């Protein structure tokens, strides 16, 4: 009880100090505003003839004068100050644990026009033969919760959760109905990511549902949110359960090394049929061994909540199918984010590996297969080698306006897949290469509003036969809260 009383006293003192500072700022703003008004009056009286650009023009019985930039800045700062004061008076979200909880997210409207058929009209990642489509959706809206908990073992505890509304029934022939950890389901709300951690000064231990640590970055887009930009075209993005630890080691005033390691449960590839209904366990769960991943990165100085970095990583996981076929997932990766002059930023990632369908590569699959004609219950299988990556050039002219251009590709080795080509098979089974080119402009008139115009081109090519292309125009409008 004594500790609780002391904590409440400290909190009350902090609130009183914050209120005192706000009151002092209000007085300073009022005094500065008065000085500007008096200065304008003195200047006006001492000037024999005002400049034509400053002359007031009557309109409908009123006088309209151009706004003073300093005065407008003061008004904006005063409005922000009033908002901060109101924040202290608003009702807070209360959790059962009594620790702080914050609701966050973005209400997102996206419109689209596809010149030819794609796998999912609103969130396309694959081009198909057929006619195009036009429509709009708000299912990419994101809702999140951030919470801070007690100190434990000298570390600050925290947790976060993100969901969207992309879970809707789809035809069973579509890979979008994959029932694994990052697919849609038969309900509206879909779990995206989650994280709970203990954070010390330079060390963090956590468990999460998130993208693999060997692929930490993602291209920027306001219209590709349900599945990130360049998904299945070089972006290893899939959300899988992980248990990990990271440690940052400083070796200079501006640079440090980041060491990361984690256990991961990789889901099955969405375009890979199970070939059996006798088990609900994934192929990695059937192996009875978790996957492992590690990353080493050189970090630069913090900058706008981002840090320049150059990282290398690796991942390995065993798999076993329900018909007792075993194969391994492995990959070597490299990632970078580099600041350039004139507000430019270069970022990207590349990988070379095998059986990467459960990570967002491998042309939607882990292995090629065909049925044994002499024994229909048996299959010939082979894990597929894969190579891919993405790169993006960003120019952020200001906090309100940025331009992004990116390209990515994912390609399984055709000489391996060709032996398992199925005439009349699904596009996922025969797909050898998927490419995406994209560019967008994002305008944010305030910290809460975002608008975007985006162009995207998808090129999907089977191992035998002609490929398909689709040009996509997307519009996005979001409200952050």
Could you walk me through the main structural features you see in this protein, from its secondary elements to its overall organization?
The protein has 5 helices and 21 strands. The chain has a 16-stranded antiparallel barrel. The protein has a two-stranded antiparallel sheet with strand order 1-2. The chain has one domain: Porin (Beta Barrel). The protein is an alpha+beta fold and 481 residues long.
What secondary-structure arrangement, pairings included, does this model have?
Blueprint: H1 2-46, E1 57-59, E2 62-64, H2 69-89, E3 101-118, E4 127-137, E5 142-152, E6 155-164, E7 190-199, E8 203-210, E9 240-250, E10 256-264, H3 283-287, E11 291-303, E12 306-320, E13 326-340, E14 344-354, E15 367-371, E16 379-383, E17 385-396, E18 401-412, H4 414-417, H5 427-430, E19 431-443, E20 449-462, E21 468-480
Antiparallel strand pairs: 1-2, 3-4, 3-5, 3-21, 5-6, 6-7, 7-8, 8-9, 9-10, 10-11, 11-12, 12-13, 13-14, 14-17, 15-16, 17-18, 18-19, 19-20, 20-21
Helix pairs in contact: 1-2
Quick summary of this structure?
The protein is built from 5 helices and 21 strands. It has 481 residues and is α+β, with helices and mostly antiparallel strands. Helix 1 (2-46) packs antiparallel against helix 2.
